[in-house]
């Protein structure tokens, strides 16, 4: 996963900005005190909500990307080199109160065991804390790419690869997303966004 600002092409950037807005709007709506953004890349999504919360923890495996974040020196931001499947180091960082919101945007599809990651991360949530999750809908995305490829319009869409997304270990339908999330709390929202061709979900810890 590359940071949005490193991607080229008007359409790709518009789609990614839409994803950022989908996630950030939900974080802002929840008015959390503490947010942990796991798999945050360089914090480009957190930039859209950091001014609305008391504290943000940017967590990613790539320490070099974290250090380049525009938010690295922000007074309300902490950065942490953490594996989503082994988030125990964040417990000391968060303290007993935990996180009010954990953001997982375009991350779970890259993990070998998304359910195991959710199980581990749930322990970091405060009572009635929430996940804000974005997952790409690879089926519709691949269909759209196929149409572009076979209609020869793909060359007009600068910055958009017509190949399957690299690193996606799982493909999710709406039913798959619901089945994945249900064991970890109350699914308060699960919606398909036709612009991003992805699913946005809010799950409250039971």
Keywords:
single chain, 206 residues, alpha/beta, Rossmann fold, seven-stranded mixed β-sheet, 7 strands, 31% helix, 24% strand, globular
Kindly summarize this structure in a few lines.
This protein has 206 residues and is α/β, with parallel strands linked by helices. Helices cover 31% and strands 24% of the residues.
Mind explaining what this structure looks like?
With 206 residues, the chain is α/β, with parallel strands linked by helices. The protein has one domain: Rossmann fold (3-Layer(aba) Sandwich). The chain has helices at residues 10-30, 63-67, 89-94, 114-122, 138-151, 174-181; strands at 34-38, 55-60, 77-81, 99-105, 125-136, 186-193, 198-204. The protein has a 7-stranded mixed β-sheet with strand order 3-2-1-4-5-7-6, with helices on both faces. The longest helix has 21 residues, at 10-30. The chain starts with 9 loop residues before the first helix and ends with a strand.
What is this structure's SSE topology?
Blueprint: H1 10-30, E1 34-38, E2 55-60, H2 63-67, E3 77-81, H3 89-94, E4 99-105, H4 114-122, E5 125-136, H5 138-151, H6 174-181, E6 186-193, E7 198-204
Parallel strand pairs: 1-2, 1-4, 2-3, 4-5
Antiparallel strand pairs: 5-7, 6-7
